[in-house]
Amino acid sequence: MERLGFAGKIAHAFIDSKLTPLIVAASLLLGVFAVKMTPREEEPQIVVPMVDIYLPLPGSSPQEVQERVVKPFEGKLWEIKGVEYLYSMSRPGMGIITVRFLVGQPMEESLVKLYNKVMSNHGILPPGAGEPLVVPKSIDDVPIMALTLWSPRYDHATLRTLAREICDDLRKGDNAAETEIKGGLTRQVRVTLDAPRLAGYGLSPLQVAAALQKGNAALASGSFTSGNREMLVETGNFLESSDAVKRLVVGVYNGKPVYLADVAQVSDGVKVPDTYVFMGLGPGARAKGLTGNPNQDYAAVTISIAKRKGANATWVAEDLLKKVEALKGKVIPSDVQVTVTRNYGETAKEKNNELLFHMFLAALSVTILIALFMGWRAGAVAAIAIPVTLALTMLIFYLIGYTLNRITLFALIFSIGILVDDAIVVVENIHRYFTTTVLKPLEAAVRAVDEIGNPTVLATFAVIASILPMGFVGGLMGPYMRPIPVGASMAMLFSMLIAFIVTPYFAYRFMKGESHYGSNEAPEDSKLTAFYRKGMGALIHNVTLRHSFLAGVVVLLLLSCSLIWFKAVTVKMLPFDNKNELQVIIDAPDGTPLEQTARITREMGDALRGVPEVSDFQLYIGTSAPFNFNGLVRHYYLRRGPNLADIQVNLLRKDERKDQSHAIAKRIRPLLKAVADKYGARVKVAEIPPGPPVLSTLVAEVYGPDDASRAGVAAKVKAILARTAGVVDVDWYREDDQQKVTLAVDREKAALAGIPVEDVARTLKIALGGQDVGLLHLPREKEPVTINLRLPVTQRSSVADLASISLPGPRGNVPLSQLVRATTGAEEKTLYRKNLKNVVYVIGDVAGEIEAPVYAILKVRDEIAALPTPDGAKIEVLASRQPWSEEHVGMKWDGEWHITYEVFRDLGMAFGAVMVLIYILVVAWFKDFTTPLVIMAPIPLTLIGILPGHALFGAFFTATSMIGFIALAGIIVRNSIILIDFAEMKRREGMPLDEAIIEAGAVRFRPMLLTGAAVVVGSFVIVFDPIFQGLAIAMMCGEIASTTLSRVTIPVLYYLVQSWKERHNGKKQEA
Question: What domain of life (predicted)?
């Protein structure tokens, strides 16, 4: 046998080796092992260390909090390497700084650096500041499951007690992590003081509080030795019942003890409600197995459970549900319903199973395609090569540490269409050798692999070069995309090795019956091939026809690109997903009491009862719903207050409803807004984003020299967005004006009365806000039973009511009215900062004809740019960076636009890198500067299919579409390389240029057509997936257009370039 190249040597070594079937078996077993052992999740794990730092400064205004604690700590935290963003908010008495590190920074290392920085800078805390509280947050803190307990029989307090019992059992589950209970009322001993009686006994609320604290104590006092035994001593006794609290002596009057019962009403009950949770049923409740009165809101509590890092969400969820079932009838009464209102383990399982089925379908479809074109024997070879390659890629995912989620599985589906290319090219060439040569089958198979080996290696690395740069996309989108280039690149490497090791082995055994060994008959061209030869001959030799064809291709390309200009194809980061849940965020006017907020929220719940796709909903009043990844980034878990509420809306399963969740969100938005407008509230419908979450779809960050300037311009931006068609849920991060009564203490009068100013402030805190002054010590209780001190509502409803409070001084009781002076004003607003600059956020969403933020921004761009500013300077509107200076008012667009900008910028740079890498590879192989340009020329032709394809399907051109375009560059170049390499080989054998290029097109057309069809068939299975539709359309339509056009375009361009070279070289020789 003649000297063999790299691929030929590998094929020769394994084509008759007993190791080959063992390699196949081992690969498949390792793949099955990887599928079983890799944790399953719906979304990829994104490592983004995020930490909240709470900085208390009691009694201080937002401005003072910002200047005294927030700014000094921001300066120190900004020094930490790896910090990408610093967000802060300064509220009355509290500052919160959120530190977000760069994506991919190690969580533990980042936390250590942050803790060190905070703890080593305690000295910058001013007097009166509290201890900084550092609370890290990550995607692992997002609850994967929520269980809502509800019943027509039991009240909030009973359900809370039951939920606590259940929590204790759920915590024992494998890999269960943080659990939290939302709603319900806890047990509390309420001490309701009587101000006149206190005054009559010469007592104050502070003295009662001190008596409760000091009379509820026990300490280990030590020990003594008696009779050679050590006796332990404990002194004091705890309060263990409400009767004991009543009998507590709180003072002495006229030589007699004053009991707490003499000056207060003591009751052992539940705390005053500061939150409510209700369960409501929608029209789809029966489909979910829920029964009850559809017009009633049931008292409810919700238990949320997170999982440990790296745990399999599906297994954890299944284990939790088994525990709940085991508790029914034992801990959970039969008349208490437990509804699963979130199960990310189940959705992960469903999505994984769906994508695994799609992967199987894609592999089967490609195998059938090959069988139809080349016979069942060739199809059988492909049926072995594809699963072996996928199995090895799955193993790599497992070893790298990826989870099995929709992105990693999609990467495998995406790979099927391109990884089969190597097998197709090798099988087709072996088939051609068997049918067109008289070599022995073994030698023919090895020769076929050897002939196609070098261009296949080059083509494989060209595809990898086109895919791998996508792995360097930055920001939050990077981890979402990274499994695609990593998985596809590994799959391509494995497919090349399998094509050289496994494919010849089975092709030799399955297809040698097709060999023409010993035959002298030459196969005839098919009619299609004969037509191609004739047509290409005319096109190459007829100058007018040739130029007309190339001009027509250019016109088609320009017409296709014009679809973006005319908005027939619109650009968006990612399309809308189809989820089974929505979240409604309600902000009643500041100052709205809890009961009024409950009325607004329940009325919105009534509106949801008319939406047929709603199965159930939970009303969270005064608190937030269990947060998801979106809520983690938006800090929804900090939402707590009497004027705030959330509604968790659960929809029927996707296969039980016609509309997608986005269409349902658009339908319910006006229903909820009508209720909100009625009460002056603000409402937002928050959909779970398909990719990385952001503060909002539209975010305008307004910067400026002072709060008044920022707020003034932000209000105008808010008004512009509110009246812009297609922009909805417009809001801003600024509270409504809320009336505040300030009771200023007359220091001189207080000093003369012998009463410290602090005592006055603490007394009023107890009277109005109440204070927990201790615990009822009940070891069997699952939750702390607090003792709360407060005045009755009738004695704290106005400033005049507070006049009845007296404070004891050295010279007798002093009425509070003599020490304080009441003034009325407005509560100060929360101040926000981002990366050390003061900012006001204006947010909005898009829902209309064109639902992409870039077009909404273009609509309002000129109007915002023309806004007047307080100093008369022109407002600076920026797209990607903060204003350099805060001297004048400036604005930056953020939100989904920022991620869109970053991703398309990075993908554009990746595409540029792809072009350079492919050019270098092809130059190195062909040792020519112009031939690579011919090979790469068809890349833009994919747009002739991609853009019209998006317009035809009515789909956004998204980041996944861009990925498809970039990946196609490698696939197209691969086919061009194989075609040109064959033409060059024929020219080296002495064939004329025109005949060589026509022969190459005729011979290589079938593998080109097969690889193109494999891409189309492999992509078709995901064309209806809401997230990956863009990529599927790009791959399918782009491949159809490029395969159709490149078979003609490449030979024509190659002929033009090479004939010009021949003429140019001829002139040089003549000279």
Answer: Bacteria
| CATH of span 187-270+739-826 | 3.30.2090.10
Most confident of 363-367, 511-515, 698-702: 698-702
63 Cα distance to chain centroid: 34
How far is residue 913's CA from residue 916's CA, in Å, rounded to a whole number?
5
Indicate the average pLDDT of the chain: 89
Q: Which residues pair with 99 in a beta bridge?
A: 51, 86
* Cα gap 983→502, rounded to integer Å: 28
Phi (first) and psi of residue 128, to 5 degrees: 95, -10
Q: Shortest CA distance to 23 belongs to which of 587, 612, 599, 500?
A: 500
CA distance 694 to 841: 13
Residues making up the chain, counted from first to last: 1071
Q: Where are the domains of the chain?
A: 1-35+375-519, 50-137, 140-186+273-347+578-688, 187-270+739-826, 528-568+928-1071
Contact 463, 971 (CB under 8 A): yes
Angle, helices 344-374 vs 376-400, to 10°: value is 150
Query: Considering only the top CATH level, what class is 528-568+928-1071?
Result: mainly alpha
Q: pLDDT at position 518, please? A: 47
Kindly write down the DSSP assignment for every residue of 92-161, as one continuous string: TTEEEEEEEEPTT--HHHHHHHHHHHHHTTGGGSPTT----EEEEE-GGGS-SEEEEEE-SS--HHHHHH
8 Å CB contact between 616 and 288? yes
Neighbouring CB atoms inside 10 A of 25's CB total 11
The 3 state secondary structure assigned to 472-488 is HCCCCHHHHHCHHHHHH
Do residues 832 and 735 make contact, with C-beta atoms less than 8 angstroms apart?
no
- How far CA 766 is from CA of 369, 591, 788, 789, in Å, comes to 79, 20, 9, 6
Residue 197 CB coordination number (10 Å): 13
Q: Which of 505, 513, 529 is nearest to 434 (CA)?
A: 513
Q: Tell me which of 687 and 405 has the higher pLDDT.
A: 687
Helix 441-467, helix 959-988: angle, nearest 10: 140
What pairs with residue 298 in β-bridges? 279
Predicted pLDDT at 46 = 82
DSSP-derived letter for residue 866 is T
Residue with tokens 């495998």: 412
Tell me the angle at which helices 896-926 and 441-467 cross, rounded to the nearest 10 degrees: 140
| Amino acid occupying residue 471 | G
Q: Which of 458, 228, 269 is nearest to 918 (CA)?
A: 458
Q: 10 Å Cβ neighbour count for 749? A: 14
**Type of residue found at 787:** I
1018-1033 pLDDT per residue, tens: 888 888 877 788 989 9
Spatial CB neighbours of 206, under 8 Å, sequence gap ≥ 6: 759, 762, 763, 766, 807
* Assigned token pair, 204: 């104050």
- The CATH H-level (homologous superfamily) assignment of domain 50-137 is Multidrug efflux transporter AcrB pore domain (3.30.70.1430)
Per-residue pLDDT of 29-44, as tens digits, reads 999 999 888 888 877 8
* CA 109/CA 300 separation, integer angstroms: 40
Query: Which tokens is 1033 given?
Result: 């359309």
- CATH: 1.10.10.10, 1.20.1640.10, 1.10.472.10, 3.10.180.10. Which one for 1-35+375-519? 1.20.1640.10
Q: Beta strand pairing status for 581-587 and 682-686?
A: antiparallel
**Bridge partners for 832 per DSSP:** 89, 839
Start-end of H helices in 566-660: 594-608, 629-634
CATH class of 140-186+273-347+578-688: alpha beta
Residue 514 — pLDDT band, cuts 50, 70, 90? Answer: low
pLDDT digits (tens, 9 = 90+) for 888-936: 999 999 999 888 888 888 888 888 888 888 889 889 888 888 888 888 8
**Does residue 647 contact residue 620 with C-beta atoms inside 8 Å?**
yes
